[in-house]
Automatic annotation (TrEMBL):
It comes from the Bacteria. The lineage of its organism: Bacteria, Pseudomonadati, Pseudomonadota, Gammaproteobacteria, Enterobacterales. This is YnbE family lipoprotein. Residues 1-24 form the signal peptide. InterPro entries: YnbE.
């Protein structure tokens, strides 16, 4: 009988030591700051014939 009591007591003590995991939402909302500046440059090289055509026919584009 004393061995049974010791086993029950140790089982009760070990059951009280189980880890507890808690998942909770944060108090403040999550803020993502996306200050992004995008710059780009386009360089076009054309032949002299195409360049003169574009100058003479400005209504193409």
């Amino acid at each position: 009988m004393p061995m049974t009591r010791i086993m029950l007591l140790s089982a009760a003590l070990l059951a009280g030591c189980t880890p507890r995991i808690e998942v909770a939402a944060p108090e403040a909302p999550i803020t993502i700051n996306m200050n992004v500046k995008i710059e780009h440059e386009i360089h076009i090289k054309v032949d002299k014939d195409v360049e003169s055509l574009l100058k003479s026919r400005s209504d193409l584009f």
